[in-house]
């Protein structure tokens, strides 16, 4: 086996997939083992370096995850919920570290991912950046310090191609706020206000989503009190922050036992 751990990038042609390919190729701690696209994609069989407009790198894009996983130690997956569930089962069979950045996962997807984590390392986070994971910690602390008279709202903005709302990050922040306050997010969540909504439900944790242009990702946690407001904010301007975090997670997971982990574990927060 090569000295450097081989990494598979799933969804290689996507916004994150392209960024991840570049990040792994530039790394001196990992090597690119394979690049996966869905069957029928016109990149299948072509060199991934050339697909991205550069020099060949000796890795052809494949639509066969089993073949790809056989030559690697980790798979980094920013795709769709359906694809991620499929990759989780195959990565667990191959005992690969599976780093999941995909958002919009429903309870039935999460149950399958948890089942796979009984056999292999899975690191999953709605946001892989250091800044957002620090913001999650701060949100939990601020929510714990304030009483329930302070209204909590999570406001997020993303590009016009994003398909899920609230964002995975907004949900991480909402969960942290709920945890800090000692309540259950599912009970207190309030999203998609429209029309005659009535007054704000006391103690609710609200979510608002903006979609437009090429916004990479912006998140505010607003604590609105009487006569004052606190805003915790993260602004992503470059997808490289997510790719760096994902590669860090893939390397971190190499010596861990099977289980479900997140970026808090990776970053030691
Ligand atoms: N956790 C984090 O830090 C971050 C998470 N994300 C999340 O990552 C996900 C992807 O985002 P983004 O890159 O913007 O989305 P894109 O739509 O640009 O990329 C998704 C890629 O996955 C591919 N794909 C879908 N199904 C399969 C399959 N079965 N096999 C192989 N490839 C497949 C798509 O191919 P095709 O185009 O042919 O459908 C596409 O290339 C989203 O859920 C997003 O929210 C994004 C940024 C950061
Ligand atoms: O789809 C995106 O682009 C992003 N998705 C993640 C999310 O849902 O929070 C992370 C980041 O904000 C970009």
TrEMBL record:
What Pfam families does this protein map onto? DapB_C, DapB_N
GO biological process, alphabetically ordered: diaminopimelate biosynthetic process; lysine biosynthetic process via diaminopimelate
**Stretches assigned to the Dihydrodipicolinate reductase N-terminal domain:** 7-128
Q: Does the keyword Signal apply?
A: no
According to UniProt, the reaction catalysed is: (S)-2,3,4,5-tetrahydrodipicolinate + NAD(+) + H2O = (2S,4S)-4-hydroxy-2,3,4,5-tetrahydrodipicolinate + NADH + H(+); (S)-2,3,4,5-tetrahydrodipicolinate + NADP(+) + H2O = (2S,4S)-4-hydroxy-2,3,4,5-tetrahydrodipicolinate + NADPH + H(+)
Q: Which UniProt keywords apply?
A: Amino-acid biosynthesis, Cytoplasm, Diaminopimelate biosynthesis, Lysine biosynthesis, NAD, NADP, Oxidoreductase
- Which InterPro entries does this chain map to? DapB_C, DapB_N, DapB_N_CS, DHDPR_bac, NAD(P)-bd_dom_sf
Domain of life according to the entry: Bacteria
Residue ranges occupied by any Dihydrodipicolinate reductase C-terminal domain in the UniProt entry: 131-267
Documented EC number(s): 1.17.1.8
One of the entry's Gene Ontology molecular-function terms is: NADP binding
- The residues that hold (S)-2,3,4,5-tetrahydrodipicolinate are 159, 168-169
Q: Which residues form the active site?
A: 158, 162
PROSITE patterns found in the cross-reference section: DAPB (PS01298)
Instruction: Identify the metabolic or biological route this protein is part of.
Output: Amino-acid biosynthesis; L-lysine biosynthesis via DAP pathway; (S)-tetrahydrodipicolinate from L-aspartate: step 4/4
Family membership noted in the UniProt record: Belongs to the DapB family.
Q: What does this protein do?
A: Catalyzes the conversion of 4-hydroxy-tetrahydrodipicolinate (HTPA) to tetrahydrodipicolinate.
- NCBIfam families named in the record: dapB
**Which PANTHER family did the record assign?**
4-HYDROXY-TETRAHYDRODIPICOLINATE REDUCTASE 1, CHLOROPLASTIC-RELATED, DIHYDRODIPICOLINATE REDUCTASE
Question: Subunit notes for this chain?
Answer: Homotetramer.
What protein am I looking at? 4-hydroxy-tetrahydrodipicolinate reductase
Protein species of origin? Gemmobacter caeni
Q: Which gene encodes it?
A: dapB
């Amino acid at each position: 086996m090569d000295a450097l751990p081989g990494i598979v990038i799933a969804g290689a042609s996507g916004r994150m997939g392209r960024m991840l390919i570049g990040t792994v190729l530039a790394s001196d701690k990992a090597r690119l083992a394979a690049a996966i696209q869905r069957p029928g994609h016109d990149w299948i069989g072509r060199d991934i370096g050339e697909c991205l407009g550069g020099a060949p790198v000796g890795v052809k894009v494949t639509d066969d995850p089993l073949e790809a996983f056989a030559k690697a130690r980790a798979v980094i997956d920013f795709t769709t919920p359906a694809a991620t569930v499929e990759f989780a089962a195959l990565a667990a069979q191959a005992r690969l570290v599976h780093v999941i950045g995909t958002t919009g996962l429903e309870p039935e997807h999460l149950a399958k991912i948890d089942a796979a984590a009984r056999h292999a390392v899975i690191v999953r986070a709605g946001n892989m950046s250091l800044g957002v994971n620090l913001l999650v910690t701060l949100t939990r602390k601020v929510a714990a310090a304030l009483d329930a008279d302070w209204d909590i709202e999570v406001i997020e903005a993303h590009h016009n191609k994003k398909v899920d709302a609230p964002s995975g990050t907004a949900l991480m922040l909402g969960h942290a706020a709920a945890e800090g306050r000692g309540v259950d997010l599912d009970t207190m969540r309030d999203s998609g206000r429209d029309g005659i909504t009535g007054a704000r439900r006391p103690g609710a944790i609200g979510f608002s989503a903006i979609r437009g242009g090429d916004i990479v990702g912006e998140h505010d946690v607003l604590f609105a009190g009487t006569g004052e407001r606190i805003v915790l904010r993260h602004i992503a301007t470059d997808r490289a922050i997510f790719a760096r975090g994902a590669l860090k997670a893939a390397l971190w997971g190499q010596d861990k036992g099977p289980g479900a982990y997140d970026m808090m574990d990776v970053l030691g927060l």
